């Protein structure tokens, strides 16, 4: 399941979820052998979407694998959308190379026109290798590099003219009662022939716009200044959603939006002009049975547990999450921080132009995909990169400019691990810091003094007007480990650390929220596995099977009161 609402009433679309032919192979073998034309005989089968590391015998496999699936279409034009393929993907249809894509967590698509109705075969080569020079993420990260076609592959059957995409921008009037909308709709046709059509736009089934249009190949239609009165707002209590449907004679596309205003004034965060404090967790999409390829049922369970904890916010650490997860947060009124998987890049790697190029592309694809989700209030540029260096400065500047050029309606931040000598805070709206006092260094009580020192440093640099988020803090607790002495690795030590820090942050007027590291225990990369008990990052409030640790109940008490 890709989305939680119906995107088309007219257009036929379906997923290729199911069993695919599958073959692993070292070092990108298979191209010279023309496996895209003739798939090797000795294949096995896997379910798509999934992670191959959840298959028997492939627990630690990181490399290349080939996939193949035969399917039928009833039209001559189709759009094939890959919603998530790890690393490098090369796609062939009926033996012809359609194209390639890099980046695991955002979709890519191909429009294929003039094919025959009936059966076709798609072959995909997935290369999930990482290095410490130019892949995003690098090899060395603190989560597992699952491989595979991790999200659905979708086939859309297209008519002669179809809706390629649309963008809905709005501004709310000062009283938040009416909205002004601007929209952009891109129509495409399979050939260069001039075609006439009619474009209609509906909001919640009421028509708000109609015009005759002409398309030669591709046309962008701009609709300006549509006014909507008596707007129902989207907020954490009542997350009201509007359905905007674009329709031509033979095609349609529905988007879902929510009207809300997020802003910072005098270091206070406001949602729809009401002060809000972010009570959050960092969450990886990770489960022992599914890896990163989550079923919607499990997403719902995670959101139920997180809401029950009293949270109003989630940070999608450290990559764009599944579209269905974002849809569900839209429906549940949760506030989301979304970021790209750029984690822990040292200065030397940040100088590589390919890293910058790939990072910019990932930001672009993330914002393009998720622009309409009201749950997203913060775009994260990266996590714990060398923001105390010139290379960190240059890349952060470029990233911030890119994000602002695409979306000025949300807040920008990144998680800094160099708070005392960071040189990039000037580019962002919120200063976010990751610190582990009481775990890797210092004592739990060190936090208070550190915050005072940090704030004086900000003042000294004229940055005291920016609010602070504590984007990561926490302690590892082995599930079931309970001690009289309250020592590290026990559930009671984690509880003690979180009790202390959550109260401290909430009482600090400069802090607008915090995200506990982390929601659940996760499998980690082999590069750091041996420094982590069980090969897991154990700082979850629940374990990897979502069983609560002691801290869960204390955090719940605190968050419910705050
Ligand atoms: C970092 C990082 C997290 C995780 C955490 C930890 O701050 O951003 O992904 O690795 O440390 O547990 O040490």
Automatic annotation (TrEMBL):
Q: What is its EC number?
A: 3.2.1.31
Q: Is Hydrolase a UniProt keyword of this protein? A: yes
Give residue ranges for domain Glycoside hydrolase family 2 catalytic: 262-560
Give residue ranges for domain Glycosyl hydrolases family 2 sugar binding: 16-155
Q: Give one Pfam family, short name only.
A: Glyco_hydro_2_C
Molecular function (Gene Ontology), one example:
beta-glucuronidase activity
What is the superkingdom listed in this entry's lineage? Bacteria
Query: Which GO terms of type biological process are on file?
Result: carbohydrate metabolic process; glucuronoside catabolic process
Q: Which residues form a coiled coil?
A: none
Give the residue spans that cross the bilayer: none
Enzyme type, top EC level: hydrolase
Keyword annotations of the record: Glycosidase, Hydrolase
Q: Where is the Glycoside hydrolase family 2 immunoglobulin-like beta-sandwich domain?
A: 163-260
Q: Record's family? A: Belongs to the glycosyl hydrolase 2 family.
**Known PANTHER family for this protein?**
BETA-GLUCURONIDASE
Mind telling me what this protein is named? Beta-glucuronidase
**UniProt organism field:** Thermoclostridium stercorarium subsp. thermolacticum DSM 2910
């Amino acid at each position: 399941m890709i989305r939680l609402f119906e995107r088309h009433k007219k257009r036929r679309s379906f997923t290729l979820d199911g069993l695919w032919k599958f073959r692993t192979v070292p070092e990108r073998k298979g191209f010279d052998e023309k496996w895209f034309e003739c798939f090797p005989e000795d294949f096995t089968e896997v379910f798509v979407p999934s992670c191959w590391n959840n298959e028997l015998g492939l627990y630690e496999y990181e490399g290349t694998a080939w996939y193949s699936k035969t399917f039928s279409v009833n039209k001559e034009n189709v759009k094939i959308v890959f919603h998530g393929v790890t690393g490098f993907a090369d796609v062939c249809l009926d033996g012809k190379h359609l194209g390639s894509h890099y980046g695991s967590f955002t979709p890519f698509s191909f429009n294929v026109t003039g094919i025959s109705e009936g059966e076709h075969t798609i072959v995909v080569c997935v290369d999930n290798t990482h290095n410490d020079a130019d892949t995003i993420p690098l090899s060395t990260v603190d989560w597992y590099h699952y491989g595979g076609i991790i999200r659905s592959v979708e086939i859309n059957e297209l008519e002669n003219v179809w809706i390629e995409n649309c963008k809905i921008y709005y501004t709310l009037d000062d009283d938040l009662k009416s909205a002004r909308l601007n929209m952009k709709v891109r129509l495409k046709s399979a050939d260069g022939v001039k075609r006439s059509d009619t474009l209609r736009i509906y909001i919640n089934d009421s028509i708000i716009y109609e015009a005759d249009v002409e398309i030669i190949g591709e046309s962008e239609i701009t609709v300006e200044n549509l006014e909507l009165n008596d707007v129902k707002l989207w907020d954490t209590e009542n997350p009201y959603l509007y359905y905007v449907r674009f329709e031509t004679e033979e095609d349609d596309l529905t988007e879902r939006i929510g009207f809300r205003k997020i802003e910072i004034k005098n270091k206070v965060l406001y949602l729809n002009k009401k002060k809000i404090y972010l009570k959050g967790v960092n969450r990886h999409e990770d489960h022992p049975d599914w890896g990163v390829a989550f079923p919607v049922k499990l997403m719902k369970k995670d959101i139920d547990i997180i809401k029950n904890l009293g949270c109003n916010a989630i940070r999608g650490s450290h990559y764009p999450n599944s579209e269905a997860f974002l849809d569900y947060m839209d429906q549940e009124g949760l506030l989301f921080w979304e970021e790209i998987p750029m984690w822990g890049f040292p200065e030397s790697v940040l100088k590589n132009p390919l890293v910058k190029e790939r990072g910019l592309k990932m930001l672009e694809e993330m914002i393009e995909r998720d622009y309409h989700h009201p749950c997203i209030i913060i775009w994260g540029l990266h996590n714990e990169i060398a923001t105390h260096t010139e290379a960190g400065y240059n890349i952060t500047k470029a990233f911030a400019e890119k994000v602002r050029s695409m979306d000025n309606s949300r807040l920008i931040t990144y998680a800094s691990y160099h708070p005392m000598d960071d040189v990039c805070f000037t580019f962002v709206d919120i200063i976010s810091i990751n610190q582990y006092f009481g775990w890797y260094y210092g004592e739990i009580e060190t936090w208070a003094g550190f915050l005072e020192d940090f704030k004086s440093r900000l003042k000294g640099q004229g940055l005291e007007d920016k609010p602070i988020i504590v984007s990561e803090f926490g302690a590892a607790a082995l599930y079931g480990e309970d001690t009289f002495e309250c020592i590290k690795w026990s559930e009671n030590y984690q509880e003690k650390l979180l009790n202390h820090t959550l109260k401290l942050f909430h009482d600090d007027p400069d802090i607008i929220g915090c995200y506990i590291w982390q929601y659940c225990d996760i499998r980690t990369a082999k590069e750091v596995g041996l420094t982590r008990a069980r090969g897991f990052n154990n700082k979850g409030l629940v374990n990897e099977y979502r069983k609560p640790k002691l801290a869960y109940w204390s955090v719940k008490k605190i968050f419910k009161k705050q």
